[in-house]
Amino acid sequence: xxxxxxxxxxxxxxxxxxxxxxxxxxxxxxxxxxxxxxxxxxxxxxxxxxxxxxxxxxxxxxxxxxxxxxxxxxxxxxxxxxxxxxxxxxxxxxxxxxxxxxxxxxxxxxxxxxxxxxxxxxxxxxxxxxxxxxxxxxxxxxxxxxxxxxxxxxxxxxxxxxxxxxxxxxxxxxxxxxxxxxxxxxxxxxxxxxxxxxxxxxxxxxxxxxxxxxxxxxxxxxxxxxxxxxxxxxxxxxxxxxxxxxxxxxxxxxxxxxxxxxxxxxxxxxxxxxxxxxxxxxxxxxxxxxxxxxxxxxxxxxxxxxxxxxxxxxxx
Length: 316
Known about the structure:
40% of the residues lie in helices and 22% in strands. It is of the alpha/beta class. The strands form two sheets. A six-stranded mixed beta sheet has the order 3-2-1-4-5-6, with helices on both faces. Strands 8-10-9-7-11-12 form a six-stranded mixed beta sheet.
């Protein structure tokens, strides 16, 4: 497959670096200001070195990437809320050209799911978005394999930054601000961690799961989710929970038509008490009981593997 990549952050650059190993060719790449296009395949090492040294990927325009020669558009620009632009517009352009789209960007399927599916129905292209929920974890493909109608609920830890903060607070008895500063020093938390610690990132992932499970019967957006973050969780609450054999984790839930995210008490030795940046999703099934899917829920290479797994699905 020939791949064009919109977005040259951690995920986009990892897709570019790993694509050849999956048997695919990157023919175009765009960052927020520039693009580079070569129908025969980019010299990816040179392009990424230019990005590192000069801050741009090439001398072309990002528009040239969208109009280039590719089979699959990988949309890896930052997630935005509301109209989900520019990600949604990039997806729309590709589908109008009957190209496939693989999303790492959560915005289009969290905020405009019905619009995405409507565009897909009118196109010869397909849309895949495994990477939008849980990084390398095969959450959406597992739902697809079982059938959404056979999944009755989903819950889990879906943000590594929030989980790192809570698990460090619990292990060391430290306060929120201290651990958050540590996470930022380690690169686990962004300079502006709002999306993570306020629960927005986890909520977007739960909204995507809810849309998949609803199968078009209802559309969910972030406005449909009840969301509470971790900023007001005191170290004393974690200490009290520990005395009772429990701990606190930021849990996202999709159940009975509701989407909820917030701090929850969970058994200290239970499956949901994952530590560090690890994520877990539990799927309740009608015939197979509870499935636990755990792994690295974020990171450039981890998310890129999910993107490239979707590209592989398009070749089947």
